[in-house]
Amino acid sequence: MKAVALTRHLPVDDPQALLDVDLPKPEPLGHDLLVAVKAVSVNPIDTKLRGPKGKGGEQEESSPRVLGFDASGVVEAVGPDVTLFKPGDEVYYAGDITRSGSNAEYQRVDERIVGPKPTSLSFAEAAALPLTTITAYEAFFERLGIDPDGANKGESLMIVGAAGGVGSIGIQLAKAAGLEVIATASREETTRWVKELGADHVVNHREPMVEQVRALDFEHVDHIAIFNDMGHWDAAVELIRPQGGIVSIDDTEQPMPMAGLKTKAASLHWEFMFARPMFKTPDMVEQHRLLNRVAREVDAGRLRTTLETVLSPINAENVLKAHALIETGTARGKVVVETFA
Q: For the chain, what is the largest distance between any 2 Cα atoms, rounded to a whole number of angstroms?
């Protein structure tokens, strides 16, 4: 089968950073689906895993390594323990960081982290959703404990880094739950984008944020999601309400003073959507249920895809172009590569 893989960890401007390779077609086992991949979305984690490692930089892989997480496609075959899907079903999913990735014609993926593709979306539109949607959904409704059905209606949520992939779907999920959303964006283009997605207020995260939020007549914010780096930690601690919660998705080596959080009896949560498949947690099937719910909301017109850029076909050149666009840090929405030639 055709696949896009890396053999050395190289900078994005090196044409050898990703290669077109031919690999054996996998066989589904246990709860596996074998999916014929139609479209893949590129995320920041792809670029981090591909790039140079440590001081030596060009670390070599012992065999070609296929990256890629977000995908949509058609079930080709199923393992003996599969009960949720059958061959011919159209699906979407975000994959498992411990397994071979989606940048291949065929991929094995556990049915418990797969959902039925929204019928109203193309494969490219659907591939833009899973990783960011699962991340935002788990961050808000599982880590912060917000009720997705509106029990927290009227409470405030600040999304730092709101124009990216996670923030773009996060705004929609938060508005559907009845929250008042303060989004951060730093450019005219991204400010328009977050407003279009439903943000109630926009502040510039490249300027002092506390003053901007207070000028909106918020002394404190009920919930805060940091969907970029932790450089805004101090502002988040100052703004979070007593007994409120902050959730972050990115690791950091920056100092994170906790005194202000302690005196407010506020909480810090980490969201990592790969935790369930990585550790095979007993509630792994919750990601299947989550994606089912999101598909229904999309088909009902209450959520929209965050796809912004499509490249075709799926090959090393185009996947590397997508990596380069992500690494600029200026992309809004999602970048998708579709169709094997």
A: 60
The helix (run of H) or strand (run of E) holding residue 214 is helix 209-215
Q: Domains for the chain: give ranges and CATH numbers.
A: 2-129+276-338 (3.90.180.10), 133-270 (3.40.50.720)
* pLDDT score for 56: 57
Eight-state DSSP code of residue 117: P
Alpha carbon separation from 275 to 84, 97, 173, 226, 266 (Å, rounded):
21, 9, 21, 18, 24
Amino acid code (one letter) for 229: D
Amino acid at 212: Q
**Separation CA 319–CA 29 (nearest Å):** 28
Interatomic CA distance for residues 21 and 104, integer angstroms = 9
What crossing angle do the helices spanning 165-176 and 188-197 adopt, rounded to 10°?
30
pLDDT digits (tens, 9 = 90+) for 274-291: 999 999 999 999 999 999
CB atoms within 10 A of CB 58: 13
CA distance 154 to 178: 6
Give the helix/strand (H/E) hosting 296: helix 286-299
Does residue 52 contact residue 8 with C-beta atoms inside 8 Å? no
pLDDT in tens, 28-63: 999 999 999 999 999 999 999 999 986 655 678 889
The dihedrals phi and psi of 133, each to the nearest 5 degrees, come to -70, -45
- Give residue 269's pLDDT: 97
